[in-house]
Batch of 2 targets.
Target 1
Amino acid sequence: MLEKHVASTPSVAFLHQLQQHVANQPALEQITERMDSINLHTTLSASPNRKYIEEALIVGQDSASTRMMELIHSQQHKNVSRFGLVGKGGAGKTLLLKRLFNSHQVQTLFCNDLILWLTVSQTPSFNALRNALFKQIALKVNERLDSTEEDNVKTWLNQSMRKHKFALFLDDVWETSATSLLEELCVPLSPLHNSNIIIATSRSKTVLSQLGVPAPSIIQMQDLTEDDSWRLFSAHAFPHGDGVLPVSIDQEIARRVCNECGGLPLAIKVVGQAMAGFSQSNEWEFALQRLQKDVTHSLSSRLRLSYDALSNLPGYGISLQLCFVCLAAFSEDEVIHTGIAVGYWMGEGLVAGPDPLQIGEIYVNLLADRCLIEPILKNQDGKVINFRVHDVLHHFLAHQIAEKEENCFFQAGKGLVEFPGDDCEGHIRISLRDNSLTKVPKAFGAPYIRSLLLTGNTSLTEIPKEVIRSMTALRVLDLSRTAIQSLPRNMGSLKHLVCLSLCCV
């Protein structure tokens, strides 16, 4: 019945009606999950306004949060006030921004208005960002747009944001987009309403200045103090003891392991979770020695410790590690549906057994438990529905592990317009998702390739029969969201092909 209703009802209007009339929140979440599972993509699945983060684990940023709220309240009579959070990768900028997004103060100030969230990333697609913004606004104001042509979306966005009061949260802004971002998003800087706000996060004060954030409105994220670091570390490293150190572990050694994380929340969480399975002091001493070997104290060495620890999980080991690596095939900051990721893993043969789908879902939850992925939506049983990979972890996986150790070529969402045939040669996993490729050259040979992901190249019209003939070991081929209308007749020669995706072609 739900599928029939969805099929005959505009998605925006239908979801708005659900929000208005379904009073039982668990029931609404079940409906939302079901809609997500039938590929109805809305901002309900990507918005940060679903709280799955334990507030007790958000430590050490109270002063920054308080200062930001003070700034917001002090600028209540300007047309558009701009604020920024700046800090190193893994410093907790996104987490603090989500806290502000969810805060009672912001939700009260904009209770009948537009509260909008966009993750920008290093190589953003402005068209995709505009469409994401359009969906959020359309859902809130319960409006439809008959034509989703680019110019129509731009005009509609500008007019809608001019009419409505808004709070726009921009996460992870880079220099590549800062100067033109607001213009590309069609954000009016002289709207009809007062008290509009734009809050952005970045690793650079210069980027925030380019975005128009005045210096007094930029808040620097500080590294956690030693006490706050230990609180966060203990919560992850000793979860079964409610953060209390077991007697079998030397506290001095454990604190030194924590201190090696340099007060960086991301490092503290992933290292803490990596150590959660170790209960003997000699195991902690070994981990400390590994961390101390890196005299540069790089974040990569901390992440490497957590990645290597996956192989120690009984019954999972290298399979779970490879599944984690394959997440770098998706675009940076992409919201990844569990079903899509698990389908990819199954096609690769990385999850096996009587019920590989269930095992894949277990893998996703294990990675979430170890803070290696960030759940965005869960069902009421705690199962992760969709998630993202922190950009720092994504970069680590793509460049330190996938490229150098697993013979992968992952260039998703990099704005490529030509197929990088020479660079792809000899790799066993290739991801060119969400680029602007128009063709795959006939001369491209890939006898060793196991997976080729071309989804999201909307102008790609064919995959040559010569390429198909060469891919004798191919197991996964993703051609979804392309312009391909027919497949070569020799597709049957792909004897090892397990997963072929043609969604929305």
Note: Confidence is low (pLDDT under 50) at residues 1-56.
Target 2
Amino acid sequence: MRQKTDKIYGELLSRVRVGSMTVDDIKLLEQRKITIDSSLSYHDRLQEVCNYIEKLPLDTVCLVPTCKQCDIINSVMTNKIFSEEIIFKAHDYIDCPKSLKKKACDTLIKIEEDASRSAGLAGIIVIKIGAKVMLRQNIDVTLGLVNGAVGTVISISKSIDGSKIQGVNVDFGSGKVNTIERAKVKFQLLERAFVIREQFPLCLSFAVTIHKSQGLSLKILLLKQAIVFLMLVKYMLLFLGLQNLKDYYLINFDPHSVKANLLAIEEFNRLRKIYRSDLPPIPVSSIRWHKVWDLIWAVDENSVEIITKTLKKSCEKLLVLRGIENSDCISSGLNSVI
């Protein structure tokens, strides 16, 4: 339904869905790639990505496949803001038998940074005045204060004596400032162990994971109002993230990684033959596209060195592989495999 006005793109997604991309599909998607100089250092590449993000409209959300990449972009973008960090620590109360108290506390520490396991409320939130944040709960649908609403932190509200932060004042694009107060949720840690948490239902939103975006009321996904980065294409993450091609830009695009489960397609065709014989079977492509190595931009410097050394070592092993000589008297590893 989303692509009914763009037949070419709709058909492209239908082929991506079953892992049967054509040369034209790849060329079309590659037109959406942002060019970054691969000779730059890791830090310079990361800065170039974030500089591009900084120029985009407020309601732009960058979709990335991993939490690690999400944290890196949010961290770098927040550091670009010249204001003091504001730290919100959750108020937690553990409700469990005394015998489970220690185990429950240890479990809570382990999931401290995983808001998905704590009803969307993080244990610690670090923001700045001017940072872009996302609402993690539905507060008032009539005012547009819904899960996924993106806005800018304008200020904070403190108690009369200034000892306690009572609210975060956010402009969600309407020009009107809304005060977001702490929300209270209850979630389960272990069997017979629960946590009652009070925390501001906010998170940095320069980037979010593709999976998280599927459950959010993002304007960008509904109204197609901005550009979205899809940093890394792995399997069907491409199909989940792409909805309107002209609003999307890619940094890494590897056609080799766009795959579909062949057993699922076979089962689909079996059922279609039985119940919808009027429809043609889904074609299964045997083409394996050339591997395009990802541009490294969102990993630690140490990891970059390890990956580089690993690739170098792998290539050295490949180069010394011996096989039957070709007609030009050069030994070929491919002939050895054959």
Note: Residues 219-241 have pLDDT under 50 and may be disordered.
